[in-house]
Write a structure and sequence with these properties.
Layout: E1 9-13, E2 24-30, E3 33-42, E4 45-50, E5 75-76, E6 83-85, E7 90-93, E8 103-104, E9 106-109, E10 112-115, E11 121-122
Antiparallel strand pairs: 1-10, 2-3, 2-11, 3-4, 4-8, 5-6, 6-7, 9-10
Bound molecules: FE2/S2 (inorganic) cluster.
FE2/S2 (inorganic) cluster binds near residues 53, 77, 79 and 82.
């Protein structure tokens, strides 16, 4: 069994995450399987979730890295239009009310963004 890594993983520069801008996409190992994830900035806070809708486990971006609705208020799933509240990933409208996106913990330090592995989410290398 590979050793568990819990060290913060560099994701990108802080400047790469603009307020309600395009996402920075990345991959993590979820229980050993590579899965897509994304990071965005909302209300000045960097946030990351798996790119997996809580309705049907599909990728949500309508074009790579495009996760915002027209008003840039909610994260939207392009498949059936579920709207997710950015700070907590909870579905507030659409086919899966109350369900949540899977969050990945981020931190920012000295202009850099890091994500935190867990037992479930590990770095690829
Ligand atoms: S798959 Fe996302 S709303 Fe249905």
């Amino acid at each position: 069994m590979p050793e568990l890594s819990l060290a913060p993983q560099h994701l990108c520069e802080s400047a790469a995450l603009q307020e309600c801008g395009d996402a920075v996409t990345f991959e993590v190992l979820e229980w050993g399987r590579s899965v897509p994830a994304f990071a965005v900035r909302y209300d000045q806070v960097a946030l990351a979730y798996l790119n997996r809708c809580a309705h049907v486990p599909a990728e949500m971006d309508w074009q790579p890295g495009k996760f915002w609705d027209m008003d840039k208020r909610f994260i939207i799933c392009s498949v059936h239009g579920a709207l997710y509240d950015p700070p907590n990933g909870q579905c507030v409208s659409g086919p899966c009310p109350g369900a949540r996106l899977e969050a990945i913990k981020l931190s920012e330090e000295a202009g850099q963004v890091y994500w935190y592995p867990t037992e479930r989410f590990q770095p690829l290398f």
